[in-house]
Amino acid sequence: MSQLQEERKIILGNENVDSFDFDEVQDFVKDANEQLFISHHFATKNKMLVQPRGGFPTYEKQFALYDFFVKANVDVLPLTIDSNTRLNDYATAKKMLRLSEANEMDMLNGYPLVNHGYRTTRKMMTHFNLPVSLRHGTPDARLLTEIAIASGIFEIEGGPITYLLPYSKNFPLDKAFLYWKYVERVCADYSTLNKPINRESFGPLTATLVPPAITIVIQLLEMLLSLEEGVKSFSVSFSQQGSMIQDIVTGKVTRALADHYAKQIGCEDAHIHLVYHQWMGAFPTNRDSADQLINMSTVIASMVGADKIITKTREEAVGIPTKEANAQTVANTQYTLNILGGLPAITDEQEEEILTAEVHAIMEAVFNDPADSLWRKVFNSIKNGIIDVPFSPHIINHNNMITIRDSNKNIRIIDRGNVPIPDHCFEYEKSCCDLNKDTTSIVNDIIHDIGIMQ
Amino acid sequence: MKVVTGVIGNDIHVVANRLMDLSLNARGYEVFNLGVNTYLEEFFDAAVETGAEILLISSLNGEAEGWGREVKLLKAKYKSLDNLTMMIGGNLTVGSGNAEDIVPRFKNYGFDLVCHQVDLNTGLDMLEEYMRENKHS
Ligand code: B12
Fold this sequence. Notes:
The complex is a heterodimer of chains A (454) and B (137).
Chain A: H1 3-12, H2 22-31, H3 38-44, E1 49-51, H4 59-71, E2 77-80, H5 83-86, H6 90-102, H7 113-116, H8 118-128, E3 132-135, H9 142-151, E4 155-157, H10 173-191, E5 198-200, H11 212-228, E6 233-239, H12 244-264, E7 271-277, H13 287-304, E8 308-310, H14 323-339, H15 349-367, H16 374-383, E9 402-405, E10 411-415, H17 423-431, H18 439-450
Parallel strand pairs in A: 1-8, 2-3, 3-4, 4-5, 5-6, 6-7, 7-8
Antiparallel strand pairs in A: 9-10
Chain B: E1 2-7, H1 15-26, E2 30-33, H2 40-50, E3 54-59, H3 64-68, H4 71-75, E4 85-90, H5 99-109, E5 113-116, H6 120-136
Parallel strand pairs in B: 1-2, 1-3, 3-4, 4-5
Bound molecules: cobalamin.
Cobalamin sits between chains A (55, 80, 83, 86-87, 109-110, 137, 166-167, 204, 206-207, 280-283, 315-317, 319-321, 391, 393, 450) and B (10-16, 19, 56, 58, 60-62, 87, 89-91, 94-95, 115, 117-120, 123).
């Protein structure tokens, strides 16, 4: 038995799993309907795929939510996992699921997939026969991924960096890399049986003043770590940043460099997609303003030329949205996409050049780390601050990079920390901002910039 | 005045916590910030260790209801915490809750001050007023 297979047996021997039948699951994936694979939809549909977010504690509520999404003409269904399951606290998830089933009140902010199990969940997925995306934020997603694929969920979001730095305080980073290697291999193995399983990186990170250079570097590194293990279908992503031109430039540079670096490791046969998230930061509490923001996000996603858009709702600032509000965004987004036409092609060569130079410089510093494998190089680079994510709650993250918005709302780097932003790029970034202020006013500006859409 | 703060449960929303740290410091408190993903025991342990007068808990992701129910039971196990002022704020339910239901419920769980979707500085003003009144009585 291979080492991976042995590890899988241990993972699936978890007390919360009700006897995992490896052979049956393998046959299920082999014979699964092609409609369940988002990779098939990317290949055959000539439109931007629309995917909401959403997870309720109980099977019945999740089923009802999907019913609403289908009526709103959804392209891809989400399965958003609750925060206890995300941090592998299955016992609390179980207790809160029981309480949610017994009462009117939802006690979980997502669907506790491990507790529901794959036999139950698969019924729902095959009933709707649409591609489903697993949204989770889990540093150790080995068990969750196994249960998801066995349920008919053939897109797995996340990665060792994007599901650790925004989502954890002290989960060991080296372990996250090894646990995600397991996920990549399982996805790669299943991909040989039918259409490929799609892996997607989580570009929004903390959704709080993250500069595009950091986002892109992390997208590229997670893509490489995944392709290295044999994954054949991968999505890079980012979220609305606040300035339309910065989004357009980010999309362009992301696509170009994803192709460049995939080719460099001989993986040009893999399919790479671009995903755009509607505004992920602090939302306006006013529901009508929220609708306007969401609509603007859709327009920008079209300018960016994304392959998929992930939506928010008018209730974002308030709490987990109702199924009605959630489906409404799907319908609105489809409507906007349908009526948009004659989009101008916009470029900004200077911004593209600066951003490309920043990304190359950081990538080079990562590759130059003396460690013998890519994951170790990336690990060291995070540890020594070559990669630094603003507002990460994780103790390993340096938190020394400081960013602020310029008068056009572009996110600019005003303190590099230990990130090797080339001097001429750094001078350019700073020259866009008004920095002749005392520290208190700059802190107030940052607070203002976090709440820019409120 | 010493205050222990952090975000409860398996919740990793850190932005308000960082701003909380700044605001509390600016208002002259001595701040012990436990950060995100902090369990109830850790809060109480820190309150004992630091001798804090105030425990200020944040919850954003909807877990507060689950943890709130454990507060009285757990706090009773600590002998020295009877005078601790307990405050909770953020987004206290899953879905859209109603402050009129939430505030009395959380007071029942053992909190002196409850702020559901109240702005940080408004909440900290309430705290200051509460502490002033309680000192005199
Ligand atoms: C940014 C964000 C994220 C980022 C967080 C990055 C990070 N590490 O911090 C990412 C994308 C990673 C994320 C992930 C998740 N998120 Co989130 N997130 C948000 C978002 C959009 C903004 C939060 C924010 O930073 N606001 C800015 C700060 C400054 O303000 P604030 O946090 O809102 O707090 C204010 C007040 O509440 C107050 N306050 C806070 N604490 C206290 C304490 C006291 C005593 C007082 C007086 C005041 C106070 O101060 C602040 C300023 O006034 C909100 C929605 C929104 N508000 O727009 C959702 C939101 C908080 N997230 C939510 C959820 C559920 C999650 C997830 C669990 C995923 C999911 N199931 O949807 C995961 C988290 C996993 C986990 N383990 O917890 C829900 C919570 C739902 C609920 N309560 O019903 C929200 C409301 C979105 C939604 N509508 O579903 N999220």
